[in-house]
């Protein structure tokens, strides 16, 4: 007997063991009656205890409910206890889903395709490809209004003749022993899940995200204590952010917009300054290239590739070995406008001395290595080797 079908608030019961077997390396037992809800219909299973032994999972096979236990059960008569916090959490989520599904249908004629009540959040899949945010907000408000009205949520077991006269949100393939969840004057739907007795027990419903799945919309939502925790976390985050900006929570959006504008202005200034430094560095290296056939240099936080490309174009006959020091690594570029130049010997020195990695065209090689105190000496060795290659 499935006690949860008749009373979702039942947490303690007594029963007799009617079967035993192993499931996923757990000892599993079947009972003549149980209040444990199994994994079914998009809702997660209950947890709890049988004679003090933890029930880790509950599944249903061929209409038999199996309780997977943390260790074997010795007795044939058991006292079961449901983890009430988990049970009530899913009661809130499941009832919230019914309210949302009805709200989408009443407000916009949108049918629900499926749902999933997860451990962290729940989803509702809708037969619609797009939905305006204002419409979504209106549906969320309408759903919460049903919560605040604290309407009765009851269970009905209609006879076949009576069933044909009822207006259900979704039909059922079954014709007998159909369990209906009735949210007074709002929603009537076949369901074997657990629910609160009044919509006020849901507490609060909040959408927290959306995504498109196979051309249809999936919405993520929270209800009850989950929605409260989400609000508490979000508000604490807002307070922390407002503290960083030394502004009130209500002024946070304006503060962020001001910060973004200032950041864009400063970014433009940094780009301008970097370009000026790049031009100055380029001019200095080109002056050296007029009197030196091989020019080596160490630069700061500049665009290394852009600098080397400019140097090659402005002074194609010179050889440039440019190193850029970072906090933990060095980047380097060996370049020349002369097609016959091959920097592979210089790269080989960097590989041996600095365990560097790099590649490219023979006359334009790039790479990087871990920062080393020997970098100046290694660069000089590479310059000396390239000078020998030129003679």
Structure characterization notes:
The protein is α+β, with helices and mostly antiparallel strands and 391 residues long. It folds into three domains: 3-82, Elongation Factor Tu (Ef-tu), domain 3; 88-232, Threonyl-trna Synthetase, Chain A, domain 2 (Threonyl-tRNA Synthetase, Chain A, domain 2, 2-Layer Sandwich); 283-390, Diaminopimelate Epimerase, Chain A, domain 1. It has eight helices and 18 strands. The protein has helices at residues 84-108, 133-148, 160-163, 225-244, 252-289, 304-314, 344-354, 375-390, and strands at 12-23, 26-31, 48-50, 53-61, 64-69, 77-82, 112-117, 122-126, 153-156, 180-183, 187-190, 205-213, 216-223, 294-299, 319-325, 329-336, 357-361, 364-370. The strands form four sheets. The protein has a six-stranded antiparallel beta barrel with strand order 1-2-5-4-3-6. A five-stranded mixed β-sheet has the order 14-15-16-18-17, sandwiched between helices. It has a four-stranded antiparallel β-sheet with strand order 7-8-13-12. Strand 7 (112-117) and strand 8 form a beta hairpin. Helix 1 packs across helix 2 (133-148). The protein is elongated. The N and C termini lie far apart (96 Å). The model has no long low-confidence stretch (mean pLDDT 93).
